[in-house]
Write a structure and sequence with these properties.
Helices cover 36% and strands 17% of the residues. It has 397 residues and is of the alpha/beta class.
Length: 397
Amino acid sequence: MQGGLRWPKRPFQVMCALVAVVALTAGFSLSYGAPTHPGARPLPDKPYLGTIGERLNGNTIAIVSGNSNATYLTIAYDMSDVLDDGENFRILPVIGKGGGQNIRDVRFLKGIDLGITQSIIFNQFRQSGEIGSIDDKIFYITKLFNEEMHVVVRADSGINSLQQLDGKKVNFSDIGSGSQLSSRDVFQRLNIHPQEVNMGQGDALEKLKKGELAATLLIAGKPTGAMGKLRASDGFKFPPVSFAKPLQADYLPAVLGHGDYPNMVEDGHGVETIAVSAVLIAFNWPKDSDRYRRIAKFVDVFFPKLGELQKPPHHPKWRETNLAAVLPGWNRFPEADAWLAQNRTAQPAAAAPAATPRQDFNAFLANRAGGNDVVVSGPEREELFQQFLQWQAHQHQ
């Protein structure tokens, strides 16, 4: 796996550095915010910022990401690593709760202009209306990568499918995270009713060892820091997640392979799972505002440097990013559309393996049929998918 020697250690480094970042962002937010209790006054802006202070504030943009268990934080740090240009431009990564809370933070939290979330969660908020209309409040900048569903159970549990979690206690990860909201959606579509609990992956794995949980779930771009620490020899396993018909409209088939988790998946084998799309979103500021111009500058800096992000030692998920990918039903940030229109031939191709799991599956079917189109459905599709797992595992060796 390219980049595997460096990036897994980086979330710890980021955690140390971001203590100050979170404090800074919180202070920035409070300077604009309402009193925290009746009679209290908001904190004033820092006085006498001068030329340096004005330049720093005008050229800094905050992106709310995730925690060290998942992938968002590493992605945000990668952007800071590649895009920062001293006082001329700066990315401020912020530790977040994950996909669901990140939508709320981009919509409401003062000081936050960008965030990473999951496309399916955005659609859930749109349909529920729980935070009001968001079609004209949040735009997407680009689809980033696919996030795979990780299900961890004890190896001696006898659990080999999601259906066997019905009625059992299952950790859906942190409240407000993409793992929680998307996992709820998956179980609802499959008509499975586990007992949901919410905690971090470290606590969940300890409870799993003690038999206090049947499973813990994490939806994040592979390989993740939390899952990368697991060992089959310690009594854990990944049960498969079938690409069942109720999931096929909005999810993708995916595989957890030996290259992703060498201590959990045998060489030459793969574990079937599903995936959702991670998306970079932005608040829709008025076009004549400083915050809008700041996001536009971010696009102008980020898009031309995607090729650098796709190289080691940055997270291998960058290789899946295709700036031109369209999310049906979403509005793209206008300056991102404008950049794409002006730079069609200059966009870096998504580096291998850039194809989505669905494209990989289609390639497998074509390979199996000698290049001819194949139409399959029902039981035959499921049987072919099992063969596809083996084929893809060998492709990544």
